[in-house]
Amino acid sequence: MAAVHPALAPWVRSIVAYDVAFAGPGVHIGMPSTDLTFVLPLDEPLAVSWDGDPGSRTVGWSSVSGLHTTAAAIHHGGHQRGLQLSLTTAGARALWGVPAGAMAGQLLGLADVDPRLADLPERLAHEDSWEARLAVLEHALLDAVRRRPPPQPRPEVGRAMALLTRGVPVAAAADDVGYSRRRLTTLVHDEVGVSPKTYQRLARFSGAHARMRAAALAGELSVARVAADSGYADQAHLAREWTDFAGCSPTEWVRREFPIVQATGGQEATA
């Protein structure tokens, strides 16, 4: 995990330099969330598609995806190395000059969102250390932000999205910001590309995914505990949502992503 420059903090949630070796070629699951994903592979082009839709497959030296409700299938040859960024929805306006809603459900490259950054993968490839690559990336992002006017999403939409993330019902969030539920639905969809209810589901799922991942990395995983801590009614509820968003059950996801970890704490519930 690399530090994010303070000037980029409202737009870039995290920057991860990754170097991962697998047992062999396979497919990594790119999970849906309330963030946009920006990946810059180093050793080989990134081959990614929406799970279950091979016709959506793209191959390139950069990948930018908006919010999505289907897992991404990231194909690899046994080794992956590069930089991965999580962007806030406001980051789409700051970096690319468009609301995140304009990118929802799409797999794009840098040339699609900002031709001026199309040579960034080549610039990164010329550097021989993570420190140098991160410096090149930071400079490029700061330049992209500075040459665009400050993003201007409606503040009440931002407040409503924050309330939704905390689990406030859609109708209550609409009342809080002074909109009808229908009006709020239109504004949120225009801003991020999904309805308020779907955004809320993604936010809860993102929390569950983070907890599941942390527990798996710690070597102790209880799906039932993750469900309870994430605000799901029960383990069966989490299992249904996980299958909808990830394309597999929670324990199957753990088996695929962390093959040496065993889930504990009750029988797995299925949809």
Automatic annotation (TrEMBL):
Q: Which SMART domains match?
A: HTH_ARAC (SM00342)
Q: Which InterPro entries match?
A: AraC_XylS_family_regulators, Homeodomain-like_sf, HTH_AraC
User: Pfam family example for this protein?
Assistant: HTH_18
Please tell me whether the keyword Zinc is annotated for this protein.
Answer: no
Q: Which domain of life is it from?
A: Bacteria
Report the GO molecular function annotations. DNA-binding transcription factor activity; sequence-specific DNA binding
The alphabetical list of record keywords is: DNA-binding, Transcription, Transcription regulation
Q: Which residues form the HTH araC/xylS-type domain?
A: 164-256
Could you tell me which SUPFAM superfamilies the record lists for this protein? Homeodomain-like
The protein's name: AraC-type DNA-binding protein
Organism annotation: Nocardioides exalbidus
